[in-house]
Amino acid sequence: MVVEVKSLARALDVLRAVADSDISLSATMVADQLGRDRVQIARTLHSLESAGFLERDGDRRYTPSPRVFGVSAQIAAARLRIFGAEALRQTVEATGESAFIAEVRGDSSVAVLERLVSGVSWVGRSFPLYCDDAGQALLWDCGRDEVELIFRDTDFVRYSPTTPTSAEDFYRRLAHSREAGYSLVDGESQPGVYAIAAPVRDFTGTVRCALHIEGPTDTLATRAQALGPTIRELADRLSERLGWRSTTAT
């Protein structure tokens, strides 16, 4: 058993070295980087290639295979289901409002997890990103040009007087939200519904989803400035559970 654990640890070290590299690596390069015996590293690389986790080119250098990214995505999804449920419970306890986790699907936002205080389920329902409660948080890292590209073919339907009217309008709101550290959405897709959202990152630092709460505008809007930092803190905590390690504001 000890030998098997050591072999697994060595394989993971080798796989991590190749995956973290910006170039393809030979057995010698990996051995030098890890300070290990070249023959042993070559055998491990061959085993990882045979298992489908690495690909080897004509120069006998290795790169991660698509299977690695598939496994990483599966692990990230599993951790989101597990730790997302806990984050939703904590969010409801901290705010007293229904809490949701949403992801991007095409040009829409879709709730994938929820914990309701009242009302009907929103899981699986999609709303346009430009006016959804979690839209700004999901596009948190996008610059003006990227926002313009995302909404290039979008018809900005006015669902309420507060619905964004253009990509530029959306970007102005997004920039303001980034300064605050969380987004406040007042009835943009549903009049009378107020939402507070923050981005959630995965181990790559990429925005993976958004954590948000929603409730009636007449009761939640007055608590927004107090609850905004709480939502941001809970979102950052979930990000850390998904592998995000940055200690700086996002």
UniProtKB/TrEMBL annotation:
Superkingdom of source: Bacteria
InterPro entries registered for this protein in UniProt: GAF-like_dom_sf (IPR029016), HTH_MetabolicPath_Reg (IPR050707), Tscrpt_reg_IclR_C (IPR014757), Tscrpt_reg_IclR_N (IPR005471), WH-like_DNA-bd_sf (IPR036388), WH_DNA-bd_sf (IPR036390)
Residue span(s) of domain IclR-ED: 67-244
Keyword field: DNA-binding, Transcription, Transcription regulation
Pfam families assigned to the protein according to its UniProt record, in alphabetical order: HTH_IclR, IclR_C
Molecular functions (GO terms): DNA binding; DNA-binding transcription factor activity
The keyword Nuclease is annotated on this UniProt entry: no
Ranges of residues in domain HTH iclR-type: 5-66
One GO-annotated biological process of the protein: negative regulation of DNA-templated transcription
SUPFAM superfamilies in UniProt: GAF domain-like, Winged helix' DNA-binding domain
Gene3D superfamilies attached to this UniProt entry: 3.30.450.40, Winged helix-like DNA-binding domain superfamily/Winged helix DNA-binding domain
Descriptive protein name: IclR family transcriptional regulator
